[in-house]
Specification:
This protein is about 35% helix and about 25% strand. With about 80 residues, the protein is α/β, with parallel strands linked by helices. Strands 2-1-3 form a 3-stranded parallel sheet. The termini are far apart.
């Protein structure tokens, strides 16, 4: 079975860590990368194959809406 590759994006390192730990014992999911804001997330997407993104909406530098627009080609 193919694992779901997950990216966690939040400006809180504590929250990123908690989400990562929540999936440690979930064999179907692998956290492949994390990011502290939307800009870093977009950069990470150039280097990682990701199936699912957990994304905070309110972050500094680039909020959670902007990367969604970029990913969908609307940015």
């Amino acid at each position: 079975m193919k694992k779901i590759k997950l990216m966690v994006v939040d400006d809180s390192s504590l929250f990123r860590s908690l989400v990562e730990r929540a999936f440690v014992n979930t064999p179907e999911v692998e956290v492949v990368c994390t990011a502290a804001n939307g800009k870093i997330a977009l950069d990470q997407l150039r280097h990682h194959d990701v199936d699912l993104i957990i994304l905070d909406l309110e972050m500094p530098e680039m909020d959670g809406i902007e990367p969604i627009k970029e990913i969908n080609g609307q940015g």
